[in-house]
Amino acid sequence: MPQSSGTRAQAVSTARDFLISGRFQKDLADLVSYPTESQRDDRGSEMRDYLEAGLIPRLGRIGFDCSVLSTEAGAPVLVARRIEADDMPTILSYGHGDVVHGQAADWGGGRDPFVLKAEGDHLYGRGTADNKGQHLINLLALEAVLATRGQLGFNSTFLIEMGEERGSPGLEAFCERYRDLLRADVLVASDGPRLRKDRPTVFLGARGALNFDLVVRLRERGRHSGNFGGVLADPAMILAHALASIADRRGTLQVPGWQPQSLTQDVREVLAHLPPPDSDDGWGDPSLTAAERLYGGNSFAVLAMRAGDPDAPQNAIAGHARATCQLRFVVGTEPANILADLRAHLDQAGFDRVEITAEDDVFFPATRGDLSGGWLKRVLASVEATTGQPPDLLPNLAGSLPNHVFTDLLGLQTIWLPHSYNGCNQHAPDEHVLKPVCEDALGIMAGVFWDMGEVN
């Protein structure tokens, strides 16, 4: 590698200055201005514009060759590559430029979801936290390293998709098709929140998620609750009892096969060092700590329920009832068995009239990285060298993301460094990032990328 023209400290300082000088805010304002709501079918042109006009010029200026490709579902995907030498390691980075619905009518203080607004330390706008601000931080950190050293010292590939908020349809097939283009040694990416806004977090995977409906269909329409009350079965009551059999009054899972199988001693030891998450007293499996329930366990949730017309109730026994449910699960829970285990449980409990319908568009497998991996050790040491404190280490995120594409398909160790915080209003009105967290993250990522370039 050629002699460095600057120092690590200079690269970190340059990256932090992007926040102080207003450069980060200016660039983020431009990215936020693209209304890339992937849950709206009429945003196709905005999706492509975000990649072609929003990101490609920035990447091109720092030596990336860019291509906009498409998934089988039709969503555009940006693949950007900077190849410095064939014998250097390659770092793959991921982000998504799509956002959830803007919910413009619900934002406070005269804010517009697609116009960045600075208020004190807050930068408001849709996508600031999820995920435009996060992949912008990583791009600017690379720019800082290049400005200081003249080269990265590794090959860099960026994958930016535009369908994550719809469950990343087609991403797995896309990565299979372009496996050679995406070949890498490790994934270093950013999404989600830190555990603490004043301390960085590193996580290695994510809980899986499976959504499904439980439905009781007894009659085409409701029947008079006086004329038939006590003689016709009530689908809402049947459904309520079925739900109560899945988890007890504390939310502890009762379905055989749904209990976590991967809460090993090394995972417990890592979780024991984390700050306790916010939790309700008397809720959750009492045999586990709050951190073990959140990051090392499985959880069942009822996302929505309906019987009759809640907005205009009638004196009638509903003909049918439905609950949309979700299981969040960790590594060790076999996804293919989840609904089969539930079917067996419901049948055993006498709820054979409860139908199970899977929602194929909401499914992420669970992943968890190696807690002793070499790349992880480098990243942890780098973060501590920059900040003076070790980061919070999570075996996996409590939420879900398409990490399985990188671990299972591409065979990569995955290391995630989130740049948001728990109060960012992700997926809600008034989404925002905090300037101090962004400044800290810019320096951290410049340090990480600098140290990655020293591997050779």
TrEMBL record:
Keyword tRNA-binding recorded: no
One example GO MF annotation: metal ion binding
Keywords: Hydrolase, Metal-binding, Protease
Peptidase M20 dimerisation domain boundaries: 205-349
SUPFAM superfamilies assigned: Zn-dependent exopeptidases (SSF53187)
Pfam family name, one: M20_dimer
Coiled-coil stretches noted in the UniProt entry, renumbered to this chain: none
GO terms for biological process, alphabetical: proteolysis
Membrane spanning residue stretches: none
Top-level taxon of the source organism: Bacteria
Name by which UniProt lists this protein: M20 family metallopeptidase
Species assigned in the record: Sulfitobacter aestuariivivens
Lineage: Bacteria, Pseudomonadati, Pseudomonadota, Alphaproteobacteria, Rhodobacterales
